[in-house]
Input
Amino acid sequence: MSRGLSTAVVNALKSDVVRPVTFARLDFSSSTLYLHDSIGTFTWGGNNWLGVGDFGSVSSIEEGSDIAPYNITLTLSGIDSTISDIGTAGTEDYFLRDVDIYLGLLNADEALIEDPNKIWSGFMDVMTLTAGSQGDDIIQLTCESEMAKINRSRNLKYTHAEQQRVNSNDLFFEYLHEITGVKILWKDNNSGNLGVGNGGVGGGGGGGGGRGGPRHDPSDLP
Output
């Protein structure tokens, strides 16, 4: 059986006629869009998914054995430029917002066999608007898979101030600035950083100083 697919879906895929439909969930800042590339409205998962028919398309979804990000392109074409919402598409807050793609199958009555399966998940990257000569404007949205986040820098620094912005209760980096350049000689009684002093060769430390001062066995150090 194909991974993640139910017996009913696998049997439908084996039939002579397959009626697939692709669903896309786009989480824009103003609202979440629920669309599919067939016609009419399908209701599942507690949402109404609106059909865009042949005006909407999803590029091929790739999968490979190598650890690499794969992107897809969502296209909405044949749009009348007089529609007011199209003019504001470029101002939407969409960058790095979630995108989910689902695959569903229809029976002979054009009804969903069961809830569609998620086949791709990622985030929005670049939106391109193209004005057509006959009023057929096109919107293309390039989306990156979750794997692309591995190569994306978060621009964070390993400092106490930065960590406090992330979590004010996390004190992991509180003394980081104080250990710069510190040399710790583990179980060495000549390590001034350990506050032991120079043993019997004079001065400093907590051993009383002088040539006759007490010597410390390294094994006694913590």
